[in-house]
Design goal:
Rossmann fold, ten-stranded mixed sheet, four-stranded parallel sheet
Length: 403
């Protein structure tokens, strides 16, 4: 990027989301994609219904595909690599992509169905190498199409974090397992909320970056994202060929009181990859005044608590997959929990890589592989993350034995 030229980010709003997409893309310069292999990379990480602000709205992706197809004779791919224990094709179907998957001009790919490519990260602070999708060398142009959503562990999940889906299968969990106290101590001098996960995500920036970003804020996700918060209809689309600029504008309209320190991986990327972009002042927006688009969203909770008197949750350095699973378990099975557990004898759950034997009792359910080092001291439920039905089955079995 020319250091004297600001990156351009277009922001549009329209109840007809297809018109919003077209208007946003009309205002930025997209290179000639003819004879290129173009990957459309939405966030389709879970088997959930559309318009929840959890997965990318298929209407947005379809509008992007139609816009590009009308202009460029390219080979178009669409794919993702969802969370563990999720079938990629079923996730796309459940999320409203059935019509797109039938389109003969768009090839669906499961990013995990080929032998992965191992990439070295020589300047990585914690992440030294990683395996990514085996399709990587076929892709000429990568389009990140994330949902604008809050994230309980990263502040917000936007266009750059969406690229985490290019990591091969379970290797994604590696990013959650680093322990680097000396690096954290040093970085906390300037980024108070920094965690090893933030550093690992930023380390990816030296090998994986999107060429074009279209942020889906048709339905944003506020509160305890990435999957346990609330959907908010914004009818908004943000587009840019600069991922950091796009993410900064997404924060400007959804969290106007935040700085990059509130999303530490973006702060690190602004220092290591794109040092000329620090704030809204370093970006040209179309329109110039984006105040009309500002809609403050509920921030992720500062501390994760369970508001049930008959449930004790111990959470020390968990990932969002396990935490979301536990919250959904409790929300969907409150009647059973109220019937079998009391404040005096609560349901005890523990998640996260940081728990120790002194933190819990022998009747505590240890959920997820990160707790396996304590499996002899509690009731261990393996998985990364274990599915809700499996956890409930084991809890019910234990409850019936103790009754």
């Amino acid at each position: 990027m020319d250091g004297t030229k600001k990156p351009v980010v277009s922001v549009t709003r329209n109840r007809d989301i297809s018109k919003a997409v077209h208007a946003a893309l009309d205002k930025i310069e997209i290179p000639n994609l003819s004879r290129k292999t173009v990957l459309l990379k939405p966030n389709v990480s879970r088997e959930v219904d559309p318009k929840l602000g959890i997965n990318t709205n298929p209407e947005v992706v379809e509008a992007i595909f139609n816009y590009l197809k009308d202009r460029y004779e390219a080979k178009y791919l669409i794919g993702d690599s969802p969370i563990i224990n999720t079938d990629t094709y079923k996730a796309f179907e459940q999320s409203g992509y059935k019509n797109l998957l039938k389109n003969k001009d768009l090839q669906f790919i499961d990013l995990d169905d080929r032998t992965p490519v191992k990439k070295e990260i020589p300047n990585g602070k914690v992440l030294k190498n990683i395996r990514i999708t085996g399709y990587w060398h076929e892709i000429d142009y990568c389009i990140s199409i994330p949902v604008l959503k809050m994230h309980m562990h990263c502040g917000a999940s936007l266009s750059f974090k969406n690229m985490k889906g290019l990591i091969y299968k379970r290797d994604k969990t590696i990013l959650h397992h680093f322990q680097a106290p000396e690096i954290i101590e040093e970085l906390k001098k300037s980024i108070k909320k920094i965690k090893e996960l933030d550093i690992a995500i930023a380390d990816l920036g030296s090998i994986i970056r999107p060429d074009l970003v279209i942020i889906d804020a048709s339905y944003a996700h506020e509160g305890m994202g990435p999957s346990s918060g609330n959907s908010v209809k914004l009818d908004t689309v943000i587009a840019s060929t600069n991922f950091l600029a796009a993410d900064i504008i997404a924060l400007a309209i959804s969290q106007p009181k935040w700085s990059l320190e509130d999303v530490p991986h973006l702060k690190l990327l602004s220092e290591s990859i794109l040092p000329s972009i620090k704030s809204l002042n370093d970006i040209k927006t179309i329109p110039d005044d984006i105040n009309e688009f500002i809609k403050p969203l509920e921030s992720p909770p500062k501390s994760i608590t369970i508001k049930y008197e008959n449930v004790n949750l111990l959470d020390i350095d968990s990932c969002s997959a396990c935490l979301s699973t536990v919250f959904n378990l409790l929300k969907n099975n409150k009647e059973f929990i109220d019937e079998h557990y009391t404040p005096e004898k609560p349901l005890s759950l523990a998640i996260g890589k940081g728990i120790t034997e002194s933190d819990f009792y022998s009747d505590t359910f240890l959920i997820g592989n990160c707790t396996s080092n304590q499996k002899e001291n509690g009731i261990f439920i393996h998985g990364c993350a274990p599915v809700e039905s499996t956890i409930l089955k084991i809890i019910k079995e234990k409850n019936s034995l103790s009754s």
